[in-house]
Amino acid sequence: MDAAAPEPAQFTARVAELHRKSKSPNGMFGFEVTTCDGKLPHTVAWEESWAMFFGKLLRGVLKLDTEVKRSWPELEAATEEVIAGVIPRLLGILQADGRKSKPSLIHGDCWEGVLIDGCIDCSNVC
Predict the structure, then answer these.
(1) DSSP string spanning 3-43?
(2) pLDDT tens, residue by residue, 36-51
(3) Most buried among 20, 27, 92, 98, using CB within 10 Å?
(4) What superkingdom heads the lineage (predicted)?
């Protein structure tokens, strides 16, 4: 395996293809198994709304942070404001008034160790 970073246009085209070809097995946002960043599990239970899913994901990250570190009331309050106000305005609108948002696979852990050229294969994404 070549450890060089991928060519940006080719890599982003592969990620876009992954998003286009992926299909949620139940039409909802989430994943059937717990996903992780390193050893930290994500909250990925199925949700019909992208805004609700993302809010739960963010709240789960804050919960993990609070468990590892100490409570930080200002961060907790700011996170709740984002979940209650910002996320519905930015993401909720995508599914408002009859609009649809297609659940797609995303890769949330893009760092140099996983950005090796050729690592994204979309040939058997369903």
Answers:
(1) -SPPPHHHHHHHHHHHHHH---SSSSBS-SS--EETTEEP-
(2) 887 889 999 999 999 9
(3) 92
(4) Eukaryota
